[in-house]
Every structure is written in structure tokens, then in C-alpha cells.
Design brief:
Layout (H helix, E strand, L loop, with lengths): L19 E11 L9 E7 L3 E6 L8 E8 L3 E15 L5 E8 L4 H23 L2
Antiparallel strand pairs: 1-2, 1-4, 2-3, 3-6, 4-5, 5-6
Amino acid sequence: MPSDTPSPSPGRERREFYRVTVVLPLCIQLTTDEAEGELIETSVNLSAGGVGVMVTTRYTDGEVLSLTLLLPDHVLFKSPIQVLWLDPLPLLGGMYRLHARFVGMTTQNRELLVRYILRFQRDHLQDHYSA
């Protein structure tokens, strides 16, 4: 008997990690680019599993890119990401919402990211509830 629950769209299943939206300096570039790209401060939806960010470059689903983030305390975070899908943002003319997951991330980098996200959440809740 078929289930009444619809199955999730490919690549859009329930998320495994807690997510935060923060403004951080970041750079996304092709893995073949040898020069260090410029870090540009932007809003990024971040979890230990992946990122969501607005971009002007049209990437291909499945493409592997290099992501660099500058976390607080000047901690440089680098990891490969794989494009899951790209949503065009027609009202913003030439902008896309990039959805990507981390691939080949070291345990140390994942723990660094989880610690940062938890610290951000703690600080945000302290600010919100301390009046």
C-alpha cells in the first residue's frame, strides 16, 4: 500500500544539521583556480552539512567548488562544496541562490563549524533573552 506521505524532492530532503544565517566574508571559486579569491562579506545560510548563498555565477548541478569563509577571531575555513541546485532570483536580475553541501570535509573542519554555529546560537539567544 502506498504511503500518504509525499517523498521529498531529490536533494531537498530533511536537513541533518542545525542552520544559522550569518554575515561572513566568503569566497566561492572553481577548484581549479590557483589564485586566492577575494573574500566578500555576504549573508550565508550555514550548517555543518552545507551552505546557501546568493551568487552571480551560474554553476552546474554536481559541480565541485572551493569555499573559503572567514569565521570570527580571523579563523580561515576552507572546504570543497558540491552544487546541489541553483535557484534563479528573477527580481534581482542575474542573481541565483546556490544550495551546496560540503564534500570531503575533515572531521576537524566539521567540528570547527559546529562549534562556531553553536557559539553563534548561544550569543544570539543571550542577546535576545537578556534585557
